[in-house]
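JOB MANIFEST
job_type = single_chain_structure
chain_count = 1
residues = 366
[input]
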Amino acid sequence: MASFVIVSLILWNTYTFFQIFKNEERLKMEVWANAQKSLINANETTDVDLPLQIFNNNTTIPLILMENNTIRSTANIDEKIVNDKKLIQQYLNQLKKENDPIVTEYLPGKFQYLYYGNSSLINKLKYYPIALLLIIFLFGALVYNFYRSTKMATQNKLWAGMAKETAHQIGTPLSSLIGWLEIMKADNVDETTVTEIEKDINRLQTITDRFSKIGSEPILEEKNIIEETEQSFDYLKSRFSHQVEFSFKSPKKPVMIALNPTLHSWTIENLVKNAIDAMKGKGKLSVVIEDEPHLLKIRVSDTGKGIPKNQFKKIFEPGFTTKKRGWGLGLSLTKRIVEDYHKGKIKVLHSEIDKGTTIQITFKKK
């Protein structure tokens, strides 16, 4: 509020100064017009030094003196404009808009019209409020961005700390589960049961590893991205309802990309789970990998409810969610993993309401 009052006072003072200077310039032009009248009516005994001095002292205010629609004299106007009939007429029209003319009757029934413009000082003062508002706006934007960046940095530290603490807390019961698994193996428990439990324990270890990596710079390795993607896809496929029709299509040859396997698995898991949620657990879900000369593209498509076009970018923002229960962090983390850690791109490639959505990830190849 105080800032608004200060800015308002500055703008009001500027406007006041502008009007004062404008009135002073009009008085100068009235003196100039009277000096012109004196010079016209001068005789041999008249002292013309003062009128000439008044003319010479005007070095900033542009003017055109008219009589009977004919230009009698000009001052402080570029010669190129003065010597061009079209340009001088345009300039005259501009002066008419800036100030009312000063009319002088130098002889009975004979009038001269003095058209004048604003001096460079007035013009600068006229644009000063705009410049001031622009500076204030830029300063406000700078303060806002600094505050927003600081807030986001604090939030990132908080989330990173919570994630690492979660990984630490999961680690204790996980160690115990690994021990129980070894006991089950020693007691010759059904092999299929042991294998499935082992897969879930490995999955928990992967999740723990993911959370421990948040806030740290991940190590990238040259990996076959097709194999890494298919492994994550197959695991999720075996854990979801048969009402979801899964399909996976990719090139047969390996494609090596610098990536972090744990985080890439998280990316695929987030996209697949979001797709299944969008279909409410029933529909068709496909993952297609395309190998191009310089790019590798992964497309995850579903037959779900679709996304409005105005939300194509919003879905990747932290906290944005359409679910009744959700933190809105899944796709935000996915975007960070793809773009910040793997230097790729992720976007909604296509979506239609009640028909489905396709999200595409693009990685650059070496």
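[summary]
Residues 2-118 form one domain.
The chain is about 55% helix and 20% strand.
exit_status = 0
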